[in-house]
Amino acid sequence: MKSKRYSLRTFAVNPLRRLIVKGAWHGNTPVSLKRTPPDNRRQKWVTVLALMLLILNLLLTDGFTANLPSLQAAVTTANDTIPGYTDTFRFGTNMGHRNDNWTDSQYSDLIAPLGMNSFRVKLPENYLNEFGYNIALSNMQHYQAIGLKNLTATLGVPTAAHSKAPSGDLEANAPANLYQPVFNADGSINANNYWASYVYQTVSVYKPYVKIWEIWNEPDFTDNYAATQAAWYSSPPNPADLPHWNDTIFSYIRLLRVSYEVIKRVDPNALIATGGFGYESFLDGVLRYTDNPNNGAVSSEYPLAGGAYFEVLSYHYYPQFGVKSLATGQFNNNTDSDSNIAKLLTMRDNFRGKLMAYKYGSRYPAKYFIVTESGISSQPIQGYAGSMELLRNYLIRLK
Which CATH number fits the domain 104-398, given the four candidates 3.20.20, 2.60.40, 3.10.20, 1.10.10? Predict the structure, then answer.
């Protein structure tokens, strides 16, 4: 574990309290009040200083502390420490795109005997808001009973009232009010920060069953491939090029930050994951910028870049697409089973290289990796490789 890091804001607003802590408030004699040879001028100023400290001390003990800056404990982030994860590798699946007549419990009964021991569930806000936050609780209990444990849950899909595009695709548009304060003065969750409130309620109910919380789904999905290979490494992505998010990269970092702060309040041992990234350049931006809406700049209010607010790099990989190694520059577009696994690992190495360039694994704790979407089509589509044989061989190699 690395030493705790204090934010710029803590040091900027607390100079007075830091002086008091070192001085007479805790019974220690400040250097300026130590006994000295007789000197009328010095004694005069010592008396004045002592009187000022006495008045301040009376104010502090008379219920006026709220009017003075307080010494806040440093907020621990993923730049300081990451919870340990000692569980074995877990092989899972996604529940989407199946027979609509199957319930979630029936589906889980089908996959457990096939060697699956975990999977990825969705707990969207619009669903929980409509049917109640306990709606999936019995399913979670069933999953655990049949050996599906340490689940990954994806958070997303605000209600229309809580979306920045209430008449648009709720799954593809950022939540509203992300920049509202996360906590009230008494430490409770601020209901006006809609995302914070949703995350708090969801994690409070499902923390016994979910180990990894994935924040959104594919925020870096884009049709502008050229930008991912050049512009995104030096400039923030254009929100118009992010159809699964439709907002700035700074607001996505804000989403990570709000999620991290709330989840750690509820379950300090939980792990927070990115939302299934597909491009190393988007990760580079997350590690480069803060959540400051003013161009992601560092400030007292936005002291840390996005890497401070996640512990797991979640990425998505479909092996019918080629992958270029950032280390060697070589492009692998082969689709045999050996190449498909090699490309999966190349993507991991590319992401790891970016993380290492920003000192994760040296100055800061290393991140975990998880793949929450991958697979090959059972038949060719639009010229891309696909067959049952390729699909079978790929899944066997993954296992």
Answer: 3.20.20
Q: pLDDT value at position 101? A: 86
Could you state, in order of their start, the residue ranges of all structural domains in the chain? 8-67, 104-398
Residue with tokens 């070192």: 22
* Confidence band, pLDDT 50/70/90 cuts, at residue 99: confident
Question: Which residue reads 């040296």 in tokens?
Answer: 362
pTM of the model: 0.81
Q: Comparing 258 with 92, which gets the higher pLDDT?
A: 258
Confidence of residue 296 (pLDDT cuts 50, 70, 90): very high
